[in-house]
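Review box. Two proteins, two foldings.
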Amino acid sequence: MHVVAGGDKFAQDPEEFAGRLAAQAVSAGDPTGWFERLYAAAEAGETAVPWDRGVPSPFLTQWAEQRGLAGARNLAGSAATRARAVVVGCGLGEDAEFIAERGFQTVAFDISPTAIAAARRRFPGSAVEYLTANLLDPPAAWHRAFDLVVESLILQALPDPPRRDAIARLGDLVALGGMLIVIARAREPGEPTEGPPWALTRAEIEALADTGLEPVRIEDLNDPQLEWPRRWRAEFTRPGPASSQDP
């Protein structure tokens, strides 16, 4: 993403506007502060959310189909129970709704209250529990509490710092026997990246194992049709018996 200079209230290009907000926030020492500003501006009709496609991530849906993902049988081990899932940085809710449709008891959170309010409006009557929360300071009750943790394009939206802290907090959400799926732009070490988004190296992906997770599969996907062709799609698990949660 190209970050433009200038004092306009908003840019015609949503990506340029988001980049400007991010640059201002990082410069002010508040690297997560731009998310709420962006969603609030979108709510006011001043811009659009650049990553809002109105559908779940195709990288997530393809992975779920390949894996046969189903919350009522794959993880919890009983048709009478549902596995618990959390969708990190859920934005306007498409990924969260997809995961809930796969049978998971789903929590979805975002640091932006405006995003959470918009997701609730977009999906009235949803089974998803939408909450405002911060990955860098999650509720204590979420420690190793989820059978499935979904992270799509959130780590890449954070500079470093605080990305290393976010990687550690992300891994700590995964329960015994649970799994984590991570989707992010990929780059080689030393390859320049002007964010947001800030593409991740393989070493940053592998750092998710530092919280006791084990890699199941780390895919380096390449699609020349995309603006940024390379993507990581990485699955991790926490060894141990799967948890069984009542709905």
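Next protein.
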Amino acid sequence: MSLLAVASVAAPAQAQTSEPAYNAINLNSAWSQDIKGQGMTIAVIDQGLNLQHEYFRDQVVDGICVYVARNSLRCPNGTKLQTGIAAASQRIENGALVEAEDHGNMVAGILAGNPNNFAPGGVAPLAKILMANTDMQPSSVVTALNYIYDKRQTHNIVAVSMSFGILGLTSRADLLNCNTNPVYSQVRQALKRLRDVGVMPFAAAGNGYYLNSAESWAPTCLDEAVSVGSTDTKGNVAVYNTMSSKVELLAPEYPISAGTFGYGTSSGTSAAAPMVAASFALMRQQFPQLSAETVLAGMKSAGKKIDDIIRKGIPMVDIAATQSLLTSLQAGTPAQDPAKKITIGTFNGYIAIYTKGYEGRRLTAKVAGKWLKVDPIQLVPGKSYSLVKRNTGAGFLVNVEVFIDGVSLQSATTRTK
């Protein structure tokens, strides 16, 4: 991040009229309707942030700090584990913030910074932040994810933004499929648990200058995380992007955001991941009747298609187009009943569709372009849910859309295991 300005006093809360990165995703389409993240919280796993920075005044509602490595790193209270708002602080040495560790400020500012005369505010400026400050060790990340899960209802957490990489190889096979890497097994479980309850995890794709890479860095390589790449000011995939079939969405890399004390122009896929996470939060706010997976699928379907040297038609976030698509979906969707649930899962090469509360009704589903039908829906003997499966084979990205009595109620894109 290149430094632009350092403010010694708070600036008036006036948003900049134009932020090129926000214009690129048509953000004004949401802001003009006062969709700015009200009532939403976005969790961040990073280095922590400057709690006294004007960009974050009243924005942080909770935090956790966890360091497991055997070194001198400590949380703000001097221990290896701390929770609460004070735990969200970036690291302190000799009574002062470690200014160079400003990555968390950049990421959090893109999510939900306060607009002022120096910077445009976050993509979701009225959302709140739960900041997880960790040393990025697998067990630290798991602890942070589990804390986020436990606090999801208290703070209405809808997304997690992760702009870091964990590398832990146990064999050369891990280079080909990180999902089988035992080092990441608990991270996968924690991510899946969040995603299953509608808290969507977004992860930066990485800045490794790799093409068609079988990326082995977690969390972006894991099926449970939505991998996010970045575009430059010309609208192209940024040159350093780690690019593979795992990348699901793109976003600009260059919005103005916070440093430890001032402001600067962001960079890297680290900046793109919070752009997408905050955009997702806005869509969840505007379309509460739609599931998290439906909103994600809508963002990917409606996104502006960008061609890369090895991949064509990668979707970049387009708020206006997503709003249009999701509006048409929500118009025919009844309000969600908490007693009713549809879950799409995968195991042993099968897509599994579980339903609860829809007994006696008709289910149709489009799985990998083929239709299946269950009429009427019946419970699995001795269970409180129904189950229908389709064998698609393992290792494929599969689109699934589920209809009850002809109304689309759930959709997802998942990789079969």
